[in-house]
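Q: what sequence does this backbone want?
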């Protein structure tokens, strides 16, 4: 996100998780930049299920 600091995910490298589940993402999905988008972008190698 331009003009904003990068999120920090602690000691976890992008390939740390094999699977990510985002629950109730529909509540934030209408925004142009939902709060969980950075998580999914950072951990892109993981299988991602959002519902």
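A:
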């Amino acid at each position: 996100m331009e003009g904003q600091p990068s999120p920090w995910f602690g000691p976890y490298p992008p390939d740390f998780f094999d699977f990510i589940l985002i629950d109730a993402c529909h509540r934030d999905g209408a925004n142009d930049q939902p709060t969980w988008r950075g998580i999914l972008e950072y951990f892109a190698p993981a299988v991602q299920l959002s519902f």
